[in-house]
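Intended use. Records like the one below are meant for learning the mapping from a protein sequence to its folded structure. Do not use them to infer anything beyond what is encoded.
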Amino acid sequence: MGVTLALLAMAAHGTSMVVASFAMRHLSSAPGSMLAAAAGLPAGLLAGAGQLAFGSGVELPSLRAVLGFILAGVFSTYLGRWLIFRSIELMGPSRAAGLQSTSPLITAFFGWLLLGEVLGPLGFAGIGLGIAGLFAMSMGGHGLQQGRTKSVAARHRGFLLGSLLVGLGSAAAYSASHVFRAAGVREWNEPLLGAAIGTFAGLAALLLASHKQMTGYLREIAAQPVWARVYVAVGFMQFVGQSLVTASMNYIPVSLVALISMCTPLLVMPLSYFAMGKQENLSLAAVLGICLTLSGIVLVVLHGRPQP
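Structure written out for the chain above:
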């Protein structure tokens, strides 16, 4: 069940990245990230109201659970989403998805340090294999197009370091959010309501951080109403992905959740190749990376936990 939920979360996040890459051609990522974060709030309220109306009752959360979900929302809805949107804008969806490859290893470390989760040697080997595959996908999924001039290639390399830092920052933010979300759901087993709390906290942080640019954002949104609605759809997909990630943490270690849910290149790269074939290249290295990542997931799922 945990693996299935994490795979569904990966599908939701991967689809949202491809859709967002199309929207960014018309509306920049800064107002887009605000719209996507805002879309998660009504989604969370509706999901929470439905659970309260048709569920079997909800216990009051502990302070630690609420704090965990708040921190998870700030790190994912605010920092993670803004940085991942920015990296998609800078590098394209394939390379941005590939740069998330460090997240499972960071999450595994903090899961061991803060949550007491232990993986066996084969588990860490599987995570390493998955990360190697993700790295191969990121390197092979979006190369410089043939025919570019040397000056254009030089400018591309000049932006590369900054782009890498943005992508790695996003991976670190999502790693932190995974750990905080796991701590919250194990204190209070309400993934939908927890996701709603996190979405509200992340949106509040985003609005506080960008209040000076709000007038310009609203002007951009008013000029592109169709693509603004696309960003809203992206936000709904990301809320669904966060809820599924949270639910999966009840069944499997947070490090495994991070590995599976961050394997968005498995979906992003084929979709990008067929949807944006001229900009996104699916090379032999990318195909090899997909195979390595799938092998790593299988190894962790089957043999990751140490024997009692």
